[in-house]
Amino acid sequence: MITKMQQYLNSTRCRRQMLLSHFEGHEVTHVGGTDICCDNCRKRLKRAKNVLKAGSSQNSLDDKKDFTEEAKLLFAVIEYTNGSFGLSVPILILRGSSSQRMSERMKNCPQYGMGKHKSDNWWKAFGRLLMCEKYLVEKKTGSGNFFSVVDMSDKSKRWFAETKQIPNKAEPFILEMNAELLALEETKAPAILKQSTSPPVRKVLSAAFKDARGELSEGSVEKLDEETSSLDDKAADPQEEILKGELYKKLMALRNKMADQDGLAPYMVFSNKNLLDMVVYRPSSLKSLSQIEGITAARISKFGQAMIDVITSFCKENALKEDVFPPKEGTRKLSPTTEAGLRALTPTVQETYRLYAIEKRSLPAAAKIRGMTEETLITHLAQAIKVGLPVDLDGLSVTQDIIDVITKVILSPPINSDVSRLSPIKQLCPPYIEFKHIKIVIALLQSKFGVDEIPVPSKESSVNEKSPSEAKQGVNNSPEDKEKVPFPKRKDSASIPNGFESSNVKRMKT
Prior knowledge:
- With 510 residues, the protein is mainly alpha-helical.
- It folds into four domains: 1-54, no CATH class; 64-187, Winged helix-like DNA-binding domain superfamily/Winged helix DNA-binding domain (Arc Repressor Mutant, subunit A, Orthogonal Bundle); 238-318, Orthogonal Bundle (DNA polymerase, domain 1); 336-449, Orthogonal Bundle (Arc Repressor Mutant, subunit A).
- It has 23 helices and six strands.
- The strands form three sheets. A two-stranded antiparallel sheet has the order 1-4. A two-stranded antiparallel ribbon has the order 2-3. Strands 5-6 form a two-stranded antiparallel sheet.
- Helix 7 (120-132) packs antiparallel against helix 9 and helix 11 crosses helix 12.
- Residues 54-61, 188-198, 216-235 and 458-510 have low confidence and may be disordered.
């Protein structure tokens, strides 16, 4: 009963549906979905409104998610450690921690560091969800059962064994996100902006930057193919956006009606993301419907034709174009490296990157689709560059000359590799250099050379303040000064050759 109460409190489902289903003994779906129902329904409606306003097809409103890769990672680590610890140790292993708690055996775990694309809080929330769903069990151990460890249940052991025997055919690990996970997944503020409560720091490019003299050779700055669709620069039609909203309502009503007739939960017919994709792509046949990601052949066979009839009829009445699928180049399979880089980004940054770099939308077109300013999208793309993702610099008006000018300013006094603030750099650059150029070049440099964070001294110690270069070189440093530098010099700095050859500006390999 305690577990059920935890599920109820943390669930993102309609609370009235959950209560009625529990006491009536069967799934109840005829209630909910209004702003006077419960807190979860109000939140869902608000998210739906925001997604439609942005005209996005990538943001999912379905609270169920495929956690297959994350579950495999966590289960593998728990199996490796024989279920001898709580959640904290497996999470430290997944995040590649250098904590003193990490033994050599733990660091030799095959999954060591493979979960660093998710935050510590995310893994803890995921672990708690698995315990509520009885995939993980907590056991008392030690003298007097004073300590607790977390181990895999029989349920998770069966699923994990299946994934190892038939990797490509194992059942997807789909769970309903709880409120804690959903809040983390939908966080809009980039991680770097969440440091406002932390002590102020100076961000200084690592010593490797000075060793390489900050040179970004022209040959090393390759651009992605410029294969932009003719639709890229097409302005969004306000009337079409209104019609999309009307079509979405019709499809949702039909989906809910079919679910009630078959006694199914609505998501078991089509998820909200499926409906959004139908609105955006407007398939005219079952074959076209099968091109939409995440819709199984069984669902298409059973429910697809009814949806197609509504879509084609609506498009004919309102003169809307059907089968508006992106070019095949934009939907190509991504390399494992690119997929890993995407997982390190927040959902809103992922959406921007997919539009610009994968679907090859122009920056103005992507901004209109997202309902954001171009400056915001530039910030998103800079974050993508920092994690090593390829970005077309030509589309951002970042030329080799601009790269060279900004790099020279950053390397020279009085900046001395300090990239904490953009304004001092901008003041030393020619008038044609814009803030967006500086953001992108700093991202390129950080991706290649890394960045050290040096705490800003208090007012009392400002008299004895040393420049970042002095702090890094250890000139007249006292023991206290040495303790203020949290990151050591990169081990590979001596081996970095002159010239910028980072993968984040090379051609995307598929």
